[in-house]
Amino acid sequence: MAKYATWLKDEKQEVSMGEQHKPFWQCMINKSVETSLSQKIVLDFGCGTGGFLRTLYAEHPFKAGVGVDLAESSVDMANRNKSSMPLEYYVAGSAPDLSNKFDVAFSYEVIYLMPDLRAHARFIANSLKEGGVYYAATGCHTANPMWEEWKKVIERKSELPCTDYSPEDFVAAFEAEGFTAAGQQLGFDGFVPLNLHPEYYPTTQSSINYYKRDVIIFQFTKK
């Protein structure tokens, strides 16, 4: 399994990405977490520098959390920044046995980077307890009207290639591995930062539409 220092070729952008994502993580959390997590064990797949689990724990404290990522430097940063929170971060392939460990799993803008969706679904199925739920949010799919241009930008800036997945491809892969599937739009209704990434968002309206309309939160429940 290939490993990287950081997902983005520019490490400074990797660090700042977490703060930029935080309001959208919070929106995802608000729409996904329906009951107390106080006795739950949580997985963050594609954890980066660890900001998602820290954000989740601050709002919904959980029993324990684990993050995994291919980026070694990012995982090092995550472990340095976890403070006294019950968190552990591992480079993918170096984690202890995660089988049947988690009550709930999350990923934010990661699932579209998986070269084999069925293999990813099997990993999540193996990691979740019976009845466990995986929430995966992404707007990087072929139903996003900007995707054709985005794919070029992502492949230029990141260490990983992209695949042209439709929303239906995500659903089909998880259903084939025994999950039930549901979904909703992220529907972010706060203020969206403008002009941060003009290579992605050519207009003001496209920035707003992406987080309001194009990002889907998939809910995959293990039978």
Describe the structure.
The chain is α/β, with parallel strands linked by helices and 223 residues long. It has one domain (11-222): Rossmann fold, CATH 3.40.50. It is 37% helix and 22% strand. The protein contains 7 helices and 7 strands, in the order αβαβαββαβααβαβ. It has helices spanning 11-32, 51-59, 72-80, 117-127, 147-157, 167-176, 204-214; strands at 41-45, 64-69, 87-91, 102-108, 128-138, 179-185, 216-222. The protein has a 7-stranded mixed β-sheet with strand order 3-2-1-4-5-7-6, with helices on both faces. Helix 3 links the parallel strand 2 and strand 3 (87-91). Helix 1 (11-32) runs parallel beside helix 2. The radius of gyration is 16 Å and the shape is globular. 36% of the residues are buried.
What is the global morphology?
Answer: globular
Question: What helical percentage do the residues reach?
Answer: 25-40%
State the low-pLDDT regions, or none. none
- Rg of Cα set: 16 Å
Number of helices: 7
- What CATH architecture would you give? 3-Layer(aba) Sandwich
Mean pLDDT: 92
The count of strands amounts to 7
CATH superfamily: Vaccinia Virus protein VP39
- How far apart are the first and last residues' alpha carbons, in Å? 29 Å
Question: Helices and strands, in N-to-C order?
Answer: HEHEHEEHEHHEHE
> What share of residues are in beta strands?
15-25%
CATH topology term: Rossmann fold
Main pleated sheet: 7 strands, mixed
